[in-house]
């Protein structure tokens, strides 16, 4: 097993910069490993599989929500921030996750959902009882218009109005997602302090950081002004599918408010004594990179933010990568991005971009050489494609609402496969909460491990390459350019310079190396050998070389 720090204790105070350039592995706990046969993955199952994750060479794991929840949105509707939902286990099981991961040299980040709670949370149950109770202003309440309609035109990402009528208070409450997910009112100081206490609780329990769900949704416009319409030619379906009217608005007032920065500073201050780090999910189709720059600028806001540019439907070309990276340099030069190609909310990139094994290997290597932190989603290291889930098996309310034009998120959330000789792929001895895709079974780790041609070993090699050369993880980048289908750039750190070229096409190509003497460092990922100042690149081949001093 090739783990980073086997048997050593994690001490973030000694290495507070650990997050910069790290590789993070996202775990969707319902679908990772079921330890008790109830068909739902759990924390004990994660512990069972941590050696597998450590063997990939990653620096940290990010666990999607496991808190107490009615599961209307599968844990992103929290009813108790300080406990584990019984379906996932207990706080003791979570402590075991922390202890085991740390022994294997990996840090643990958890998914904090602070913008909203479940309507079953005690805070909301109290808030909705009257207009003058202790928590009356802990959620976003508003009177109807004179004709009884909603206070403004804000829309929910899950479809329809973002306002739900409550007969107890004879007011509407705001919900940017499901109507069972009321939005907290961050303009109330007591709400902010309660949420900071939640962060302290988990930091004291040993977590190393947070993934912050919908970080730009925390604050809303106090005046509840209408959002303006967005012309069709400006609509971007990165955040919501094309069939969702959410895309028809410019979201000026329901999110992205400047007051958000003050709360982020307070959260960073809480995290600092622990050496913990946070990655914020920026959900905005028009301002994603600009917000990334704002939220990660300096050293008192977020450490990094999760951009959506490469979670889009269309496969990125060399030209697209250059445009995105140059824009990051322009709007977030003082910040730090976290890159991902797949997650629990979008179709897997192997399907979304329709990539075969050579192309998947190239984009993986490419991510591992980019400036920023890299985030990979469970199963992508196996090359899993989007599962086809029948309507009768759907669990996701988003997919049920917009079926069949949009099939929801279940296709990327089906259970992880571990072996090819079990009807459930080694995930569970019971009936899985979502069907295991039969197309995934031949890609199980037992079928790939040790195979030079498999994607699994390529992920291990690409991650190891990132760790072996500090410039890929922490260096600066320059000379980002595109020549036809070839992307190239340099990475530099502590006097070491690397030239990286990627042929993002099905046709042979070549790359001109900068002046100097260069040595190949990309053999482990199938990198081309340079010759006479050029690198001849086969389809979907890379060239990674180090300048000799």
Summarize the amount of helix as a percent range: 10-25%
Task: Quote the distance from N terminus to C terminus.
Answer: 34 Å
- What is the mean predicted local confidence, pLDDT? 95
Main sheet: strand order: 1-2-5-9-10-11-12-13
Note the main sheet. 8 strands, parallel, barrel
Rg to the nearest angstrom? 23 Å
Counting DSSP H or I runs of 4 or more residues, the number of helices is 13
Principal-axes shape call: globular
Category from helices, strands and their pairing: alpha/beta
Q: Proportion of β residues?
A: 15-25%
Low-pLDDT runs of 5+ residues are 1-7
Report on the structure:
The protein has 549 residues and is of the alpha/beta class. The protein has 13 helices and 20 strands. The protein is globular, with a radius of gyration of 23 Å. The strands form five sheets. It has an eight-stranded parallel barrel. A five-stranded antiparallel beta sheet has the order 14-15-16-20-18. The longest helix has 16 residues, at 189-204.
Task: Indicate the topology.
Elements: E1 23-27, H1 43-56, E2 60-63, E3 67-68, E4 80-84, H2 91-103, E5 107-112, H3 122-127, E6 141-142, E7 163-166, E8 171-174, H4 189-204, E9 209-212, H5 260-271, E10 277-281, H6 288-296, E11 304-306, H7 318-331, E12 337-340, H8 349-352, H9 357-369, E13 373-377, H10 397-402, H11 445-448, H12 455-468, H13 470-474, E14 476-483, E15 486-493, E16 496-503, E17 509-512, E18 518-520, E19 534-537, E20 542-547
Parallel strand pairs: 1-2, 1-13, 2-5, 5-9, 9-10, 10-11, 11-12, 12-13
Antiparallel strand pairs: 3-4, 6-8, 7-8, 14-15, 15-16, 16-20, 17-19, 18-20
Helix pairs in contact: 1-2, 4-5, 9-12
